[in-house]
Amino acid sequence: VIDRLSHHRGNMRTIASDNIALFQLGVNEGCKDRVKALLDNDVYVYPAEWGVMEGGQPVWLTKSSATNVQIYLNPGLIQLIRDTYFATPTAFGYKFKDQYVSSHPSLPEPELPIPIIALGATAFFAAIWGWRKGKKLGKVKSDSKLKPSERFDGNLFKTVFDRHIETLTALQTKINTYHMIMSKIYSEVM
User: Fold this and answer.
1) Contact 69/185 with Cβ under 8 angstroms?
2) Distances (CA, A) of 116 to 9, 32, 134
3) 3-class state of residue 68 by DSSP
4) How far apart, in whole angstroms, are the C-alpha atoms of residue 8 and residue 39?
5) pLDDT the model gives residue 152
6) How far apart are CA 46 and CA 108, in angstroms?
7) Nearest-angstrom CA–CA distance, 190 and 183
8) CA distance 37 to 100
9) Residue 10 banded pLDDT, cuts 50, 70, 90
10) What secondary structure does DSSP assign to 116-147, as a single string?
11) The pLDDT value given to residue 14
12) Distance separating alpha carbons of residues 8 and 154, to the nearest angstrom
């Protein structure tokens, strides 16, 4: 499963762009501020709502607590994973359904594997990042070292993907929390 994920990257970026409306980015400076707020510390993977800090800067107020961890449970992210890998019974994700197993020693609910979640979160990042100038970017200037912004390039976003892999791998040490999150995503995309 894992080795084939990169072949589905391009379509995922397009689908991610369709699922960022929930962030209500706005335009111009307000959009720039909201993009920055979302990308700082990867808070876009949480379900949340906009608030305002004392200085007037927007903040993505997450709905997590000590007993109800919500990381990676953003409904737009879940929809992105569903639309990319589970849209039809013959979609890529369904081909490997028997490989989605529980990592928990006593709870049997299946879980999605870390790379699917990490790639979805990375595509979400890329779609939001495309608005960092206050409007959706087209192609970047030819003298820039970056690829066209609409391209979901593995090298350009590798550090983001690796960061999500590390976060999810670290979460595995919290067996109950990890299982709750990964099995909840599985049940919502199926």
Assistant:
1) no
2) 11, 28, 29
3) coil
4) 23
5) 56
6) 25
7) 11
8) 33
9) low
10) HHHHHHHHHHHHHHTTTTSS---SPPTTSSSP
11) 82
12) 11
